[in-house]
Amino acid sequence: MLTRIDHVGIACRNLAEKVSFYESAFGLTVVAREVVEQHGVREAMLHVADAPAGSSYIQLLEPTGPDTPVGRFIERHGEGIHHIGYGVADIQDALDALGVAGVRLIDKRPRHGSMGAAVAFLHPSGMGGVLTELVQAKAP
Ligand code: CO
Q1: Mean predicted lDDT score pLDDT of the chain
Q2: Ligand 1 centre from 121 Cα, in Å?
Q3: Does position 100 have pLDDT exceeding 90, yes or no?
Q4: How much distance in Å is there from the Cα of 53 to the middle of ligand 1?
Q5: What is the mean predicted confidence (pLDDT) over 113-138?
Q6: How far away, in angstroms, is 57 Cα from ligand 1 center?
Q7: How far apart are CA 101 and CA 93, in angstroms?
Q8: Distance 40 CA to ligand 1 centre (A)
Q9: Strand order in the sheet with 41-51
Q10: Whole-angstrom Cα distance, residue 91 to residue 132?
Q11: Band (140; pLDDT cuts 50, 70, 90)
Q12: pLDDT tens sequence across 72-98
C-alpha cells in the first residue's frame, strides 16, 4: 500500500529560522510555501531526494496562532516531529482498505494537501501515537 516516505512534518515556532537552518545544514531548497488558514498553519516544503516512486520532503510547520492544531502540539510537546506522510498510489483505495481493517481515520475522504497532492490523516491513537498522513502526489 505504501510507496515511500513522502515527507516528515516538523512543528516549529519560527518558520523562517527553521527554513534557514535546513537550507544551510543540509543544502536543501524550498520548493513550495503555503498558508492554510483553515488549519492555522504556515508551511514550507523542502525537497530532500527523488526516487522512482516519487520525491521526498521535509515539511516545516509553523502555527498561525496558539489555538491551532500545531500551536497546541507545540504547547504540549515542544518543537519536533509532528507527523509522517507516506506515499500511496491511490488514496481512496488506501482509506477504504484501512477503514475495513478498523484503523481509525481522521479523514474518510481525501483533502487537498501541499503541491496539489490529495492527503488524508489517520488518528495517532491507532498508530502507536504517530499522527500519520497518506499522500497521493499530483500526477506529473
Ligand atoms: Co504533511
Answers
A1: 96
A2: 9
A3: yes
A4: 18
A5: 95
A6: 9
A7: 12
A8: 13
A9: 29-36, 41-51, 54-63, 2-11, 80-88, 132-136, 118-122, 111-112
A10: 13
A11: confident
A12: 999 999 999 999 999 999 999 999 999
Residue 110 alpha carbon to ligand 1 centre in Å: 13
The alpha carbon of 106 and the centre of ligand 1 are apart by a number of angstroms equal to 14
Q: How far apart are the CA of 102 and the centre of ligand 1, in A?
A: 22
Cell of 21: 537552518
Characterize 2-28 residue by residue with b for buried, 16 or more Cβ atoms within 10 angstroms of its Cβ, and e for exposed. ebbbbbbbbbbeebeebbeebeeeeeb
Q: What is the 24 CA–ligand 1 centroid distance (Å)? A: 22
Q: Rounded distance, CA 37 to CA 116, Å? A: 16
How many Å lie between the centroid of ligand 1 and the Cα of residue 7?
A: 7
Phi/psi of residue 103, nearest 5 degrees: -75, 135
Tens of pLDDT, residues 2-20? 999 999 999 999 999 999 9
Q: pTM of the predicted model, to two decimals?
A: 0.94
Domains located in the chain, CATH noted: 2-136 (3.10.180.10)
